[in-house]
Amino acid sequence: MTLSSRFLHDDWTVRVAAGPAPHEVAAAGAIPATVPGTVHVDLLAAGLIPDPFHGVNEAAVAWVGLVDWTYETTFTWAPDGQARQDLVFDGLDTVTEIRLNGALLGVTANQHRSYRFDIGAVLVEGENVVELAFRAPVPYANAQSLELGVRPRPYPLPYDAIRKSACNFGWDWGIATFTSGPWKPVRLESWSGARIAEVRVSATPDGTGGRVHADVVIERDGRSDADAALTLAVSGQCAAAEARVDVTGDTARIAVELEAVQRWWPVGYGAQPRYDVTVALAAAGADADSAHRTVGFRTVHWDTTADEAGNAFTLVVNDQPVFVKGVNWIPDDALPVRVDRARLERRFRQALDANLNLVRVWGGGLYESDDFYDLADELGLLTWQDFLFACAAYAEEEPLRSEIEQEARENIARLASHPSLVLMTGNNEALEGFENWGWKLRLDGRTWGAYYYYDLFPRLVGELAPHLHYIPGSPFSQGMGWDPTPTPESPSGTQTGPHPLDPGSGTVHLWRQWNDRDWTTYREHTPRFVAEFGWQGPPTWSTLTGSLDDAPLTPESPGMIVHQKAAEGNVKLTNGLLPHFRLPDDMETWHWAMQLNQANAVGAALDHFRSWAPHTMGAIVWQLNDCWPVTSWAAIDGEERPKPLFHALRNAFAPRVVTLQPRGDELAAVIGNDTGETWTGRLDLRRLAYDGSELAGISVEVSVAPRSTATVTVDAGVATPGDAASELLVAEVGAVRGLWFFAEPRDSALGTAEVDLSARGVSEGTEVTLTARSLARDVTLLVDKLSPTAHAEDALVTLLPGESARILVRHDGEALDAAALADPRVLRSANQLVTP
Fold first, then answer.
1. Within 121-252, where are the H helices?
2. How confident is the model at residue 835 (pLDDT cuts 50, 70, 90)?
3. DSSP strands (E only) in 647-793
4. How far apart, in whole angstroms, are the C-alpha atoms of residue 57 and residue 61?
5. Domain 4-188 annotated CATH 2.60.120.260
6. β-pairing, 508-510 with 530-533?
7. CA 194: distance to chain centroid?
8. In whole angstroms, what is the distance from residue 444 CA to residue 515 CA?
9. What is the pLDDT of residues 708-755, one digit of tens each?
10. For residues 505 and 475, what is the distance between their CA atoms, to the nearest angstrom?
11. What is the pLDDT of residues 593-650, one digit of tens each?
């Protein structure tokens, strides 16, 4: 008989079992619950807690993480002739006792894996009662920390002692929610003979054809040894193939060959054709079970060839080197059960609009949903998946050790077939932490996770998905290794080889700039690959004011401080602004100044890193998204609205760019061509006064090969200003322009931006025409102030005197009013931060 599956998502309740819940919550008794879900969502729906994202409510709902919660439902069942009845949980958050009809089925302690229980012995005909008793995560983590031994971490609560999303306990951009609940589907599976327990699929091109392998693990019902057989069918893009193999034992490998396949490419490099794969299991001659995957044919490797500088770190897809234009990803909601496929698609399409080609799933979050990776495959967005370890030392002892192996096995197998997945990484910043953050002394001989990063994970990837590439962590340098032998300086063992922040190979993270240096010092670094760097800025004005009740609203008002999680965040914002602009006195101008400085900081860094290709072959910005309304490093805020930083990414990662870069004592025009066509044209270099008059100029013909960079030194007569405060350098190839200002805005003669604005309604919203009568720097329309749904497609536009630009503002409803758009609160520029 074919396996049947029935979701058990109806008629759940949740109630307080123990802990310091407010009287009105405990007295409410059984509260209607949503499954998949989390207790916060149910309490919000019942009106029993305020919105934790709003104002200063975070502290008001912190008690939720100190309470034990019990979920309960009933379902009816009648014998169906199947030999096995399994209760399956795709995800439980996190420490749970599971009972059916009062009988204990098991205890779980890992958010990052699934669980299956044979319930045949306790299932009854008629009504059955499922009870999920969740232990409070905060006291559990604290108790486990004492049991395992306290280890170094950057935040007070021991997220390292529980297999739960680390940022659920709060981060320097994240609210602490301490969730509990059945956060993924729950179902009853009925089957006989055998079922498919695991499928690992890989697709490998070979010349113009390709091969699909499926490694299959089956489970038998324990009542029969019926013959079993597997069929593998592949179809798509006018190609189809099928194979069959008998199964002896519980494992089998099956493969099919296709004579002609189309390659899957990252966005910007080609199309994303995919092929449907079906693995079907027959037992005793009858259909028993099936599994489905969607694959793409591509080759992937990371070129780490030794060179004069160290070792390359270059992604190569289908033999084509790829300059990685990336962003780091955190859970898109601090209550992750609210993130559905539609929301993920909105975020990914924003990423594509910003000219991105890779999303790194950061190790303090989650193994994301199947929808996440399927959308990435469909849209051509590359993915990089960290194993879930972040910024802390992790115990290698039980019970964590076995749980970590199980979650790693499950998620490697689940993700391995996705063509978008190009790298798995052992951890985020643990290798650096061991070297730089005083761990060796504080560990005093305790384990810290090296076994996972240097032994377990590479072994499991090699066993389960040898086509995947793995590195032990990020940052990481080629040649690093591990020696467990204790030394007086490091009783917990020693990492061997280069330092993890060695710029000559592998990945680096650059945080000194944000923490205590000016962002112009990004130009001191020419690493092979930058996997993290970023600059803070507040969310959009609508998001900020919609989430706070502060009156008056100031950078230090109570709600603002709750929504600023970085250590001395506002101090760093101010210190990072002052080299470039003076500190504004009013809140709205402060908001604009910090948003603009964030965009300028990251944009300048990206221009610099890209200018050094192919020495530097990737930059992954921290971060794309937010999980709630907060001042953070994100380009898209917690209400899904793009910040000016979004446009800085879009501009810096455009397929073709021209930037002006310092090279020693000289300036150079660097022309980046990330297209498949040769770019030829005339490079015009002009030194202009702020009034638009040309002071010096030169033109040269250039030809830039596909996927490459050309550098042209600027003649000293053009590059040397007569008056640095009132001159700029312009480099153009056709319509693509780069600018270099010789003085910081605060030290320059930048005057009032005289900009005329007209607007007309169009089908997509409002088309705005801006015409400058004077130099207008970084002109940006903060249109969310006029309509919460509005978004300007272009921003950070610098106009020379006499120039015009058209900007489409997308929004719902009628056209926006020109006078409202021209309001200086909406029509913003860098000029406003220099002149009163």
1. 137-148
2. confident
3. 656-663, 666-673, 679-689, 694-704, 708-713, 727-733, 736-741, 755-762, 765-772, 776-781, 791-792
4. 7
5. yes
6. parallel
7. 38
8. 28
9. 999 999 999 999 999 999 999 999 999 999 999 999 999 999 999 999
10. 10
11. 999 999 999 999 999 999 999 999 999 999 999 999 999 999 999 999 999 999 999 9
CA dist., res. 416 & res. 373, Å (int): 10
Q: Where in the chain is the domain with CATH 2.60.120.260?
A: 4-188
Which pTM value belongs to this model?
A: 0.96
pLDDT for 401 equals: 97
Between helices 341-353 and 370-379, what is the axis angle to 10°?
40
Query: Residue 674 above 80 pLDDT?
Result: yes
CB 231 within 8 A of CB 244: yes
Q: Is 759 helix (H, G, I), strand (E, B) or coil?
A: strand
Amino acid identity for residue 114 in this structure = S
Average pLDDT value for residue range 104-129: 98
Which amino acid is present at 254? I
Bond from prior residue into 458 cis (ω within 30 degrees of 0): no
Q: What is the pLDDT of residues 781-800, one digit of tens each?
A: 999 999 999 999 999 999 99
According to DSSP, the residues that pair with 252 across neighbouring strands are: 216
Across residues 90-115, what is the average pLDDT?
98
- Give the span between the Cα atoms of 480 and 471, in whole angstroms: 10
Q: Which two tokens stand for residue 390?
A: 């972040």
d(CA 73, CA 129): 6
Residue 227 has pLDDT above 90, yes or no: no
Q: Does domain 193-295 have CATH number 3.10.180.10?
A: no
For 610-627, b where at least 16 C-beta lie within 10 A, e where not — what string?
A: bbbbeebbbbbbbbbbbb
Decide: 776 and 798 in contact? Cβ < 8 Å: yes
Residues 6+ apart with CB under 8 A from 614: 314, 321, 323, 708, 709
Q: Are 646 and 551 in contact (CB under 8 A)?
A: no
Q: Across residues 153-175, what is the average pLDDT?
A: 97
Phi, psi of 81 (to 5 degrees): 85, -5
Q: What does each C-alpha distance from 176 to 46, 142, 172, 596 come to in angstroms?
A: 21, 15, 10, 28
pLDDT computed for residue 248 by the predictor: 87
CATH 2.60.40.10 domain locations along the chain: 193-295, 656-747, 755-833
Domain 755-833 annotated CATH 2.60.40.10: yes
Alpha helices (H) in 686-767, listed in sequence order: 716-719
CA pair distance 389, 393, nearest whole angstrom = 9
Whole-number Å distance between alpha carbons of 100 and 781: 58
Which residue, 409, 524, 424, 536, is CA-closest to 476?
Answer: 424
Q: What pLDDT, in 10s, does the model give residues 295-325?
A: 999 999 999 999 999 999 999 999 999 999 9
> Radius of gyration (Cα) for the chain, nearest Å?
28
Query: Residue 190's beta-bridge partner residues?
Result: 4, 85
Q: How far apart are the C-alpha atoms of 511 and 531, rounded to whole Å?
A: 11
Amino acid at 385: Q
Task: Give CATH superfamily name and number for 656-747.
Answer: Immunoglobulins (2.60.40.10)
pLDDT band for position 141 (50/70/90)?
very high
pLDDT score for 226: 75
C-alpha to C-alpha distances, 647 to 77, 585, 599, 733, nearest whole angstrom: 56, 26, 8, 21
Give the Cα separation of 707 and 619 in Å (integer): 16
CA 691 to chain CA centroid, nearest Å: 43
- Residues 300 and 424 sit within 8 Å (Cβ to Cβ): no
